[in-house]
Amino acid sequence: MKVLVTGANGLIGSHTCRALLASGYDVLTCGRSGSQSSSHQVGDLLDPDFRSRIMRDERPDGLIHLAWQTKHGYFWNAPDNADWRVASIDLLDRFLEIGGTRAVLAGSCAEYDWTISEIGKKTCETDACVPGTLYGQEKLKLARHCQNLIDQGSSIAWGRLFLLCGPGEYPARFVPAVTKALLAGETAKMSSGKQVRDFMHVADAGTAFASVFESTFKGILNVASGEAHSLLSVANSVQQLVGRGQVSAGTLPDRPDDPPYLVADTSILHDTIGFESKYNLISALKSCIEWWRSHEA
Length: 297
Hints:
InterPro entries: Epimerase_deHydtase, NAD(P)-bd_dom_sf. The chain has helices spanning about 15-20, 50-60, 80-95, 135-150, 175-185, 200-215, 230-240, 265-270, 280-295; strands spanning about 1-5, 25-30, 40, 60-65, 100-110, 155-160, 165, 185-190, 195, 200, 220-225, 230, 245-250, 260.
């Protein structure tokens, strides 16, 4: 079975490909750059001619669509979020037209209504979706398109990702920023740290998407660890593992639109899909620290 994976060069894409290959799938990837091998097609997914060509020429049986606008500090309200939604709908429709049988797409926790976040209440797939960003709004439009196709009989799953951590993250993201400062023996500045979050290691997230693909599940599910940790406890854990530097909570302001509690209910992922994470928070943070140690040398 041939599976097209978009976003294979992203944080989780390589892990998804590795899991699929281990299960015996014929994996095809695409992107604006990368290997010139027959298993990788170079092109821009925002180009309709490229989308048409890859579906017509390669005729994949399966699709895992992870690609989207992800530039740190920009993607939340980037104008091309709408372009990605249009391109994704077209890609999925073309996939089904050529006889594709199974598709899994990456959604986001940003689709949910963060204004009703309650301490201790995990976010379920049936909770209200009122996205506060253009990114979340366009993802939700695509999710609804997928649901319409599911209602018509298509085998599609929509995985809503929560927070990620792991090797290769953008340096300004929370875990890398704290890690880099502490490795340098400096003070890691941060907000109050009272916000509670759900961090999943990128390898677990990638493997989870492969597991969802191999299942028969149709519909929406959360892809996350399901574990709740305050940002301050995460930063303190990094400091203990690094063994130097200091954490200074409250030196940066809390964002007024930041939800106090953003943790996923992962019942479907664990009970229905049967997925089990390889990493807990400490082992995930250790892998992040070791990666930055080797890349800061």
